[in-house]
UniProtKB/TrEMBL annotation:
<keyword id="KW-0238">DNA-binding</keyword>
<dbReference type="InterPro" id="IPR009057">
    <property type="entry name" value="Homeodomain-like_sf"/>
</dbReference>
<dbReference type="InterPro" id="IPR018060">
    <property type="entry name" value="HTH_AraC"/>
</dbReference>
<dbReference type="InterPro" id="IPR050204">
    <property type="entry name" value="AraC_XylS_family_regulators"/>
</dbReference>
<protein>
    <submittedName>
        <fullName>AraC-like DNA-binding protein</fullName>
    </submittedName>
</protein>
<keyword id="KW-0804">Transcription</keyword>
<dbReference type="Pfam" id="PF12833">
    <property type="entry name" value="HTH_18"/>
</dbReference>
<dbReference type="InterPro" id="IPR020449">
    <property type="entry name" value="Tscrpt_reg_AraC-type_HTH"/>
</dbReference>
<dbReference type="InterPro" id="IPR018062">
    <property type="entry name" value="HTH_AraC-typ_CS"/>
</dbReference>
<keyword id="KW-0805">Transcription regulation</keyword>
<feature type="domain" description="HTH araC/xylS-type">
    <location>
        <begin position="222"/>
        <end position="322"/>
    </location>
</feature>
């Protein structure tokens, strides 16, 4: 899928599918299995899902492979049970990041289980592919990672903790970029993306990352953007706030954004204007300009109008009128 050459095809794989629509569950599991096997290969084997899971397979999923690492994100409307398999040729450590819901997992031949609730992660090796159960409406990132690099960190046999740390924000931002960009990378880019992912997993385990490492700057920028997008209505949102939340200096964050050509403050203002623009055209009765200005943290309607005109080339009123006139009668 999206593989341009045989060599790059072995280095990366990517898929995305959604079987949550009515009537798509049976076809959805078949497509999921087909894409997993084709894109992730034999090294990252798919576990054996229970008949109940395959018969009601309502999930949105995406997967990405970069050489010897892989990440699969699954959001399940239905509950999922996977029994693992009885032998394991993979030399892997697994990390599970639960964004929503609950994940329970354990060794296939062991009665001991670990439960990972929403907002937590678990990093540990498995001698065999783990059996696992997810509750309904659970979202999990499954990481397959090289054990040679990560086993020295697992002195207790596992590491767990919160999934809202600065290090985890960077890791998940990089993971999202990997899903969307890996198919467009050349061999050197795939290798670099793989190395960054491993370094960020190590950073999560150690609760610190090297903020002087240039390879981590794209992940830092994306994590800052994601954080800003979630707080656009906050009055105190700024580059300094983002830097504090991501546990880096303001100067480090400025350097990261400098590579994009758009400073953090400019990004925040642009996104606020974009959201205000959507609100203007989302209904036949848009909010008053004073309401939009207050909601998106502009000093007053005059400041909002000037910023809007500078960005879109029209005042909000003229923009709304032009959109309405362009709509089919």
């Amino acid at each position: 899928m999206n593989n341009s050459t045989a060599d790059v095809g072995r280095a990366f794989g990517t898929f995305s599918l959604d079987s949550r629509l009515p009537g798509a569950t049976q076809r959805g599991f078949a497509a999921f299995r087909r894409e997993w096997e084709a894109q992730l290969g034999d090294r990252f084997r798919m576990p054996a899902f229970s008949p109940a899971s395959t018969g009601d397979f309502r999930v949105k999923s995406r997967g990405a492979k970069a050489r010897d690492v892989a990440v699969i994100n699954v959001h399940g409307v239905s509950a999922v049970h996977a029994a693992g398999y009885s032998h394991c040729v993979e030399d892997l450590v697994r990390m599970h990041v639960v964004r929503q819901g609950t994940l329970t997992l354990g060794e296939i031949r062991d009665r001991d289980e670990d439960t990972v609730p929403a907002g937590q992660f678990l990093l540990r090796p498995f001698k065999l592919a783990p059996r696992y159960d997810t509750a309904r409406h659970t979202t999990v990132d499954f990481f397959f990672l090289p054990s040679a690099t990560l086993m020295p960190l697992l002195k207790k046999g596992f590491i767990n903790g919160p999934a809202d740390t600065a290090e985890m924000r960077l890791l998940l931002a990089h993971t999202d970029m990997l899903h969307t960009t890996v198919a467009d990378l050349g061999p050197a880019g795939v290798h670099a993306a793989r190395n960054v992912l491993v370094e960020l997993v190590k950073a999560v385990a150690l609760r610190q990352f090297d903020d002087t490492e240039p390879l981590l700057m794209p992940a830092l920028t994306q994590a800052a953007r994601d954080l800003a997008d979630s707080r656009l209505t906050d009055a105190d949102l700024s580059g300094a706030v983002l830097a504090r939340e991501l546990n880096v200096s303001v100067r480090t964050l400025q350097r990261a954004f400098a590579a994009t050509g758009e400073p953090a403050a400019a990004y925040i203002r642009r996104r606020r204007l974009e959201e205000a623009c959507l609100a203007l055209t989302a209904s036949s009765r848009p909010p008053a300009l004073s309401e939009l200005a207050a909601h998106w943290q502009f000093a007053d309607s005059s400041h909002f109008i000037r910023a809007f005109k500078k960005h879109y080339g029209q005042t909000p009123t003229d923009y709304t009128r032009s959109i309405r006139e362009a709509e089919p009668a």
